[in-house]
Design goal:
- This protein is 89% helix and 0% strand.
- The protein is mainly α.
- The chain starts with a helix and ends in a 7-residue tail after the last helix.
Length: 663
């Protein structure tokens, strides 16, 4: 309170005149009434102090709890920001490394494919060259063998008329390993029209040349076989390398996608964490500022209340002392002296007191004013009127403070309640999003499991089909081999019969090198012709058997071809289906990763929302602790102040309008 008791007491000593002696005697000792009023004021101030102290302690407890909570939240947020920054740097480095590895794998695979293509082209060229060399060498060797055989059997003249002789001339002319004399002897032999002039030296030269040619062909064949083995080894190694690189490329592509998703999630999480950290810092700064301001204001209130209580205690002690009581006994006027005071002054005091008491509600200000009006000095009311003006000003200031605090409390409570509703809605949305993410994860897991089971069933079908195809192919090969062996056996039997029954057919089938100049006896020829007619039925049966075997083999080949075609189609479809299902599984896996990331994100958002809700609820509790008493008693306090002001103004009007003459 701005008006001290000492001032009121002083004013009462210099204020209006005293009441009549009869009134004093009827109402008891006035000093005792003053002390009682002061004691009532003291109790009221102490009670208000206890109430305000309780509210202040609750508010400061909220400050302490809120500061600790947000300080911890800020510490955790800072650590998380650093952790996310490190994770982001690591993920970006992994992404760059994966991209670099992917480019390297692709380059290596293209190089391997290029090496395969180059090796294939080179192998085809070498094979083509070897085929030409082999054909030429075999032709030359055949010609050389025919020449040697003809010379050994004395058929050199007939040999010189064949194409093989011309081929032998070309060989002798181009053979680099032959000496000049040997080449001339061979060419001279081949140019002779009578083979009887050939010498044994020519036969030796030809055999030697034939052996050299066979050795050259064998060496060339060995080189070709080695080249084929090297090529096959290279193809196998390169194919394995291409397969390994393809698998590595697919793995790197998947890893790049997953790492890119991780980077985006980390960036989003880092942004949210940074924003929350900034919000927590701002709220903590505001909370500390408000709490510090409140603590400073509370110190001032405590000092003022202590000063007020001290003044009241000193005044009560002063008025209750023995010396004071003795003094008041001496100074209190007698009944005769009361009669000497103007009736008009006492009337004015009475009217002013009546106006104050008409308020019905007692307050500190009205009680102090009544105390002042009970003073015993003459009728100068200037200081009392000044006190009334000060009291009215104080009441107006207090009412203004209450109105400002009410407005602050209303706006802050509404804002905090809106914030709580927003956090509750955010928590509700996060919980719904978490439920959706969990449902999505369950669905994706089921779909992935179904696809994986489908792939296992497909692999089992492929394995079964492959096993069946191998069995069918083995059965076909066995059938074809058996039929071929049977047909060969029948052909051998036919040739053997023809050799006896149809010598001409047998002679046609033999090599000209095996022809011998002999004459069949006429009786033998007739017998053979007769037996040939009898063997015609057997030959026909053999031909029919061969035809049946050929037909069966043809049907088996057709069935084998169709079965192989169906198998290849099935394998191609299975491969396509596996690739499609694998791609779907990869997509589902990515979707699962997205759902998992979303679940973690919504979980963080839920935790953050719960922390914010807790902070807002604590803030609302602190506001209610500070504001509820004022909001509940605002109208009553306002009405009481209005009544006080009205009473004070009435008292002032009475005192200001007093027109009397003091006797």
């Amino acid at each position: 309170m701005k008006i001290t008791v000492a001032a009121l007491v002083a004013a009462s000593a210099e204020g209006a005149g005293v009441a009549q002696g009869a009134a004093l005697q009827s109402h008891g000792n006035p000093i005792r009434r003053v002390v009682t009023m002061l004691e009532n004021i003291q109790k009221k101030v102490e009670t208000e102090g206890e109430t305000e102290t309780d509210l202040h302690e609750k508010f400061m407890c909220g400050c302490k709890t809120g500061s600790a909570s947000y300080t911890q939240s800020i510490s955790d947020g800072g650590a998380k920001v650093e952790q996310l920054a490190a994770q982001l740097t690591s993920a970006q480095a992994q992404l760059e490394q994966a991209k670099s590895d992917l480019a390297g794998h692709k380059s290596d695979r293209e190089a391997a494919k290029a090496a395969l293509a180059s090796a294939k082209a080179m192998r085809e060229t070498e094979a083509k060259t070897f085929a030409g060399v082999k054909a030429e060498q075999e032709t030359n060797i055949a010609a050389m063998s025919k020449a040697v055989a003809a010379i050994e059997k004395g058929g050199g003249a007939a040999f010189l008329q064949t194409d093989a002789a011309q081929q032998l001339r070309n060989v002798a002319a181009s053979a680099q390993g032959m000496s000049g004399d040997a080449r001339e002897e061979v060419l001279a032999f081949l140019d002779q029209s009578d083979s009887s002039e050939a010498s044994g030296e020519i036969l030796g030269v030809l055999k030697q040349l034939g052996d050299e040619m066979k050795k050259d062909l064998k060496d060339a064949t060995a080189v070709e076989d080695a080249a084929i083995a090297d090529y096959n080894g290279l193809v196998s190694a390169k194919n394995a390398e291409v397969a390994t690189l393809t698998s590595a490329i697919e793995d790197k592509i998947t890893r790049i996608g997953e790492t890119g998703l991780l980077i985006e999630d980390t960036k989003a999480d880092a942004k949210d964490t940074a924003e929350k950290l900034q919000e927590d810092k701002e709220f903590l700064a505001t909370l500390k500022s408000d709490c510090a301001k409140r603590a400073k204001e509370w110190d001032a209130v405590c000092k003022e209340r202590a000063a007020e209580l001290l003044a009241l205690a000193d005044t009560i002690t002063m008025l209750n002392s023995d010396d004071a009581l003795e003094l008041f006994k001496k100074t209190l006027p007698s009944a005769a002296s009361f009669m000497q005071v103007s009736i008009k002054a006492s009337t004015v005091k009475a009217r002013a007191l009546a106006a104050i008491r008409a308020a019905g509600k007692h307050s500190v200000h009205l009680d102090l004013l009544a105390l002042a009006l009970h003073g015993k000095t003459s009728g100068d009311f200037t200081k009392v009127i000044g006190m009334i003006d000060d009291m009215v000003s104080v009441l107006g200031s207090e009412q203004k403070d209450d109105e400002e605090k009410k407005e602050y409390c209303g706006s802050e409570i509404d804002a905090t309640e809106d914030k709580i509703k927003g956090h509750e809605q955010e928590i509700k949305d996060s919980q719904a999003a978490i439920a959706d993410a969990k449902e999505t994860l369950a669905t994706v897991d089921q779909e992935i499991a179904a696809l994986a089971a489908g792939l296992e069933a497909l692999d089992a079908s492929v394995a079964t089909a492959t096993t069946q195809r191998k069995k069918e192919n083995a059965a076909f090969k066995d059938l074809r081999a058996s039929n071929t062996a049977a047909m060969d056996l029948v052909e051998m039997a036919k040739k053997r019969l023809n050799k006896f029954y149809n010598p001409k057919l047998a002679l046609v089938a033999t090599s000209f090198l095996q022809v011998k100049s002999r004459v069949q006896p006429a009786a033998a020829v007739a017998l053979v012709q007769k037996k040939s007619e009898e063997s015609a039925g057997v030959m026909a049966m053999m031909d029919s058997l061969v035809a049946e075997l050929e037909k069966e083999t043809t049907v088996a080949e057709t069935d084998e071809k169709d079965a192989q075609s169906d198998y290849e189609t099935f394998m191609a479809d299975s491969k396509k289906m596996r690739a499609e299902n694998t791609k779907i599984i990869q997509d589902k896996t990515s979707a699962k990763a997205d759902a998992t990331g979303a679940l973690e994100t919504h979980g963080d958002v839920l935790a953050t929302g719960q922390k914010k809700l807790k902070g807002a609820e604590e803030q609302l509790g602190a506001l209610h602790g500070d504001c509820d008493w004022l909001l509940a008693n605002f109208d009553a306090r306002k009405e009481a102040r209005a009544d006080e002001v009205d009473s004070l103004k009435k008292a002032k009007a009475v005192l200001s309008g007093a027109d009397f003459v003091q006797e």
